[in-house]
Amino acid sequence: MNDEMMRMLELYQQGFNCSQILLALGLEHRGEDNPGLIRAMTGLGGGLGFSGKTCGALTGGVCLLSLYAGRGAPEEKEHDELLLMIDELVQWFEGEIGQHYGGINCGDILGDDLAEKVVSPQCSSIVIETYNKIKEIMLDHGIELSGEKND
């Protein structure tokens, strides 16, 4: 088990949801700490506040891509390929996760376990797969996890 997987497991055991875990890893790779952002990600877990809607690994993944490639200040410009990167993630998620579970909603993935309002162990594999796909997409578009752009 590599360091990232160990860290994911640690965050999971601390009660963080899929979206929070993805952003926490991204922030850590950037050498940043932002409890407010992690707190805001709470609402995406369980498919938008455990409503069973779009999986928090996907919505959190989109947020992670945006953390690296989005615009956060008036003087910044978003990465020219941000929307393409998001589309790649969505297409992959629908094809891989959606096909396996019959949809991309937490209700599809967790079924009756959604009522427990906790992150299920099966979610860990989805988070790991999603995180790895995000890293692949970022590298393909010249973005390092450290936040540096490859030209």
UniProtKB/TrEMBL annotation:
SUPFAM superfamilies listed in its UniProt record: Multiheme cytochromes
Matching Pfam families: C_GCAxxG_C_C
Organism: Desulfallas thermosapovorans DSM 6562
Entry protein name: C_GCAxxG_C_C family probable redox protein
InterPro entries: CGCAxxGCC_motif (IPR010181), Multihaem_cyt_sf (IPR036280)
